Amino acid sequence: MITNPQFELEPWAIKESRLDLGRLAQAESVFALSNGHIGLRGNLDEGEPHGMPGTYLNGFHETRPLPYAEAGYGYPEAGQTILNVTNGKIMRLLVDDEPFDVRYGELKGHERVLDLRAGVLRRTVDWVSPASTRVRVTTTRLVSFSQRAVAAIEYVVEPVEEALRVVVQSQLEANEPLPTQPEDPRAAEALEKPLEYQMAVAQDLAAIMVHRTRTSGLLLAAAMDHEVDGPADTDATCIAVEVEASMTAATDLEPGQRLRVVKYFTYGWSSQRSLPAVRDQVWAAMAEARHTGWDDLVKAQREFLDDYWGRAEVEIDGDAELQLAVRFSMFHCLQAAARAEQRATPAKGLTGPGYDGHTFWDTDTFVLPVLTYTLPSAVRDALAWRHSILDLARARARELGLRGAAFPWRTIAGQECSAYWPAGTAAFHINADVADAVTRYQHAVDDPPFERSCGVEILVATARLWRSLGHHDKDGNFRIDGVTGPDEYSAIADNNVYTNLMAQRNLREAADAVVRHPDVASKLDADVEEAASWRDAADNMVIPYDPAMSVHCQSEGFTRHDRWDFEHTPPEHYPLLLHYPYFDLYRKQVVKQSDLVQAMHLRGDAFTDEEKLRNFDYYERVTVRDSSLSACTQAVLAAEVGHMELAYDYFGEAALIDLDDLQHNTRDGLHIASLAGSWIAAVNGFGGMRDHDGQLSFKPRLPPALMRLTFGLSFQRRCLRVEVNHKDATYKLTSGDPLEITHYGETLTVAGDEPATRPIPQISPPAAPQQPQGREPTRRMRAR
Fold first, then answer.
1. pLDDT per residue over 300-349, tens digit each?
2. DSSP E strands: which ranges in 41-86?
3. pLDDT for 182 beyond 70
């Protein structure tokens, strides 16, 4: 349940009706706006107070040395940290010489609304100054989906009871001081004054500033311009200095009058172009924003989202809280990637500095599957970014003595940035995760130009990695030893099931791609003989199994490890990684996040129904969910094996992770993969959708508390709408040619004028599995 009293339930909005200064940082993440290129944390307009100021540009970072107490060969030498760039959100207000600051005077009313259909953040404030002067301030903020480089704010000031003297100061501020970060490996590395002045110019009511990072040498330009509408005697001027530009508008307001300022601010950056080129790009974006105007920017924002929700909306009857949480989650997934345009999607999106703004496997395995079926153009761009860093990945593989490409575990610009090699370098599964995203996109979208320009090369490069990383043993089995799977509480293990099964698919898909595109393969020096060696490795892949326990081993020997002492682990010692040495975690049966369970989701074709049930039960007992990536996958498999109420609980945990701050670090940014996981739990879990080998199949089933689930999918230039209740499921094609799907193994052809309805088989739920003591998911409401 949403326990944060700040947030109220509305069908299409996150509403905050009172301001809690103690939870500012969490609210700033929740109310963040982004388009995948620009990210604005939901800071108060006046800039102070704040929990964590934040304005981000995708990919804009500084490099820093990675310190080692004891260096070793192959250790990454430099880290990368996302920067808080020039802040264009600031709108300061003086009322009769009193600065508007919510910490002083009387805040008679304060409301913020994140509108998920309009794509804007609205704020209404009723404030009485320490001198007893009352004023109403109404603001609307957006980051444009239609114009990638543009953000804008409408700021309106009105007297409530008596005439006022009003001054509005609109600012661009570089090198904002940042608060000290907590001692938490998930937090960001703070860099002091990272931006070096290059130029600053003010003209009329516009200004531009250009800065450069000291070490990475990236150029950044930020500009602002204004429309000021007030009484005839309103004065407005603009100045710019090294780290600040300010537009000041002053006027006297009588009751019934208002001062309205519309602020347009634009950003651009480059690692290669000259200062004049970057400056002129930002001025041009500003000119287009002014030409479009505020009203049309707002209109275009709504039109973009109307189109998105029309194709992709998930509807849930029976739980209004989860309905809102899923919409919130999908909105932020969209914001994280919509206009990223061949740049990475960070684990926090552009909502905060957590994990230094790095991209992990989260994007490829959790976020891209959602976007594949809801906004495939964003997936094409994300995978084009992966393709653009292939040369760096090949260089990393050579450094490690391997062939092919070794994609980085965590990065911004493409270089490996993890200083902890057991969780970084050894987590080779990232390469199969990228290949899996390529395969899923190609099956779902059928994009031959992408496959030929990017897809084949990624598949070949990753297949070569597996062929050189693994080996055939004396019995002819193909082994991949000494790797770290998704579960970061196990490391340097032999034959991790997730890694091996995903590598197996990678090898087979690469071999198929070589056959489909021999001319492209020839340019990569890949031929049918090499493809045959990949198939041979895939066919003989080791998949560890414990016959005594009748379960698969997460990795070889895992089921023989000592069990973690859950009974004597106090609740305040979770997450374990902050209280126990990795050495102790690595040699015990304790799972940070679903690993083998993740394999049963993504490679469900490799397990029988009976194996899934036994495996799920076994690994529930040792999985502590110290990772935000776990709950959604556990929801999917719980639903598949018949634990519907448990799946419902996990669904709630994934969807509410940030609205309820379940990991206690939403201050650093949202958990974009877990938010994507709410869609995964709904569609793959209760919708029972699977996409093995490019064939859509469904085995839907609802928990007792939900009455109806409806969701939309884009698939091979078709739009499919699926509606599920407790009795049956209906499949309706809303656009495109007839589509063949399966429902509980029955093949159906769905056409636009012929929706198909099929019954849902009844089952007897299996015995409920047990979780580690104190790590059970929070129980959600039950059906009456």
1. 999 999 999 999 999 999 999 999 999 999 999 999 999 999 999 999 99
2. 55-57, 61-65, 78-82
3. no
What DSSP character marks residue 185? T
Q: What is the DSSP string of 118-166?
A: TTEEEEEEEEE-TTS-EEEEEEEEEE-SSSTTEEEEEEEEEESSS-EEE
User: What does DSSP say about strands 478-479 and 471-472: parallel, antiparallel, or unpaired?
Assistant: antiparallel
Tokens of 446: 């059928």
DSSP-assigned beta bridge partners for residue 10: 13
Q: What is the pLDDT of residue 783?
A: 45
Q: In the chain, what percentage of residues exceed pLDDT 90?
A: 92
Cα 108 from Cα 320, distance rounded (Å): 29
Q: Rounded to the nearest 5°, which phi and psi values hold at 696?
A: -80, 130
User: Which tens digit of pLDDT belongs to each residue from 58-72?
Assistant: 999 999 998 887 888
Q: Where are the domains of the chain?
A: 7-64+83-172+192-308
Of 71-75, 503-507, 747-751, which gets the smallest average pLDDT? 71-75
* Residue 20, amino acid: D
Q: Are strands 206-213 and 219-229 parallel, antiparallel or unpaired?
A: antiparallel
CATH of 7-64+83-172+192-308 among 1.10.760.10, 2.40.50.100, 3.60.15.10, 2.70.98.40: 2.70.98.40
Pair 689, 713: CB distance under 8 Å: yes
Question: Which residues have CB under 8 Å from 738's CB, separation 6+?
Answer: 749, 750, 751, 752
Residues forming a β-bridge with 57: 38
Q: Which two tokens stand for residue 767?
A: 């015995």
Distance CA(383)–CA(340), nearest Å, equals 11
| Per-residue pLDDT at 552 | 98
Taking alpha carbons only, the member of 139, 106, 107, 103 closest to residue 123 is 139
Report how far Cα 594 is from the mean position of its chain's Cα atoms.
Answer: 18
Which of 739, 717, 721 lies closest to 730 in space, CA to CA? Answer: 721
Rounded-to-integer distance, Cα 105 and Cα 127, Å: 7
Catalytic residue, from 488, 509, 620, 723: name it.
Answer: 488
Task: Give strand ranges (E) for 676-761.
Answer: 689-690, 697-698, 708-715, 718-724, 728-735, 739-743, 746-750, 756-759
Q: What is the average pLDDT score of the chain? A: 95
The DSSP secondary-structure symbol of 726 reads S
Q: What is the mean pLDDT of residues 490-509?
A: 98
Given pLDDT bands bounded at 50, 70 and 90, which one contains residue 124? very high
Q: What is the DSSP letter of 664?
A: S
Q: What is the 3-state secondary structure (H, E, C) of 487-547?
A: CCCCCCECCCHHHHHHHHHHHHHHHHHHHHCHHHHHHCCCCHHHHHHHHHHHHCECCCEEC
For residue 187, what pLDDT band results from cuts at 50, 70 and 90?
low
Dihedral sign, CA of 474, 479, 481, 487? negative
Q: Answer yes or no: 488 catalytic.
A: yes
Provide the whole-model pTM: 0.96
Q: Are 308 and 118 in contact (CB under 8 A)?
A: no
Edge-to-edge order in the sheet of strand 259-270: 7-10, 13-16, 106-115, 120-128, 134-143, 150-159, 259-270, 219-229, 206-213, 195-203
Percent of residues, the chain, with pLDDT higher than 70 = 98
Give the separation between CA 304 and CA 295, rounded to whole angstroms. 14
Stretch 347-363: mean pLDDT: 96
Closest by CA to 89, choosing from 265, 347, 217, is 265
Name the residue type at position 773. Answer: Q
Per-residue pLDDT band for 782 (boundaries 50, 70, 90) equals: low
Place of tokens 């009485």: 128
Q: Where are the alpha helices (DSSP H) in 573-709?
A: 582-586, 596-602, 609-620, 630-641, 644-655, 672-680
Looking at per-residue pLDDT, the higher value among 70 and 741 belongs to 741
Q: Is the dihedral of CA 541, 547, 550, 555 positive or negative?
A: negative
